[in-house]
Design a protein that fits this description.
43% of the residues lie in helices and 10% in strands. The protein is built from 9 helices and 6 strands, in the order βαααααβαβαβαββα. Strands 3-2-1-4-5-6 form a 6-stranded parallel β-sheet. It starts with 5 loop residues before the first strand and ends with a helix. The structure holds 1,6-di-O-phosphono-beta-D-glucopyranose and magnesium ion. The site of magnesium ion has 9 residues, from loops.
């Protein structure tokens, strides 16, 4: 690491917890076509793009769906999901997240978002969390979803930083794989706290501050 590390945060499952909304929206869509769907399948959708998620869900469908039909189903899910997202407020972000982001900024680190979600800006606006971020890389600026590194490489590019000076914080295995494929450091939290490919494994968001201090010390800052 040649510079002060920059931190790139995944959104769903790291900064906000929208999994339950994804689940409810996919469940309604799946029920409408009589397709089996449960929490276990929902867990496989973490970090995966909307269309790739739909393909996973339709593995349990009793027939094949055309591209046009799939687009309609994805749009139906997204409409339900956005209705649920519109109930979110700033209270949906924990104090620990807000305090940690503020501390990282104060100590001179650049911060970015790296999310597969096309609803990234809408979510940030709902929970009033856009301010600390120097760059936002979301589902609308990528063509390949995690585990492809594109979303994080774009975030590094938007920050004007070398990927080798970036640390990604992720809750999805596919996100840790994406960070490592992009030549970045990776912190696993939540589900990914149990993933051995991550460089650090944390239980609580506030632990990121200590990792930042350790990296600053090692790099001589
Ligand atoms: P959307 P992340 C991901 O966000 C979610 O984990 C994943 O479940 C979802 O399918 C994907 O975004 C696409 O979301 O339908 O809003 O475009 O974890 O990369 O922040
Ligand atoms: Mg996530």
């Amino acid at each position: 690491m040649n510079r002060k590390p920059s931190f790139i945060f995944d959104l769903d499952g790291v900064l906000v917890f929208t999994d339950r909304y994804h689940y409810q929206a996919w469940k309604q869509m799946a029920d409408s076509i009589g397709c089996y769907f449960d929490e276990k399948i929902n867990n496989r959708l973490r970090g995966v793009s909307r269309m790739a998620s739909l393909d996973i869900i339709l593995e349990r469908a009793d027939r094949k769906y055309t591209q046009e039909e799939k687009e309609k189903l994805a749009a139906q899910k997204n409409e339900i999901y956005r209705r649920l997202l519109s109930q979110m407020t700033p209270a949906d972000v924990t104090d620990s997240v807000r305090k940690t982001l503020a501390a990282l900024k104060k100590s001179g680190h650049k911060l970015a978002i790296g999310s597969s979600s096309k609803n990234t800006k809408f979510i940030l606006q709902q929970v009033d969390l856009a301010a600390p971020f120097d760059a936002v890389s979301g589902g609308t600026n990528i063509t390949h979803s995690k585990p492809d590194p594109e979303v994080f490489l774009k975030a590094a590019q938007f920050l004007g930083e070398d990927p080798a000076d970036c640390v990604v914080i992720e809750d999805a295995y596919s996100g840790i794989d994406a960070a490592k494929a992009g030549g970045m450091f990776a912190i696993g939290i939540g589900d990914a706290a149990g993933y051995d490919k991550a460089d650090w494994h944390i239980q609580d968001f506030s632990e990121i501050e200590k990792i930042a201090e350790e990296l600053d010390r090692k790099a001589g800052f």
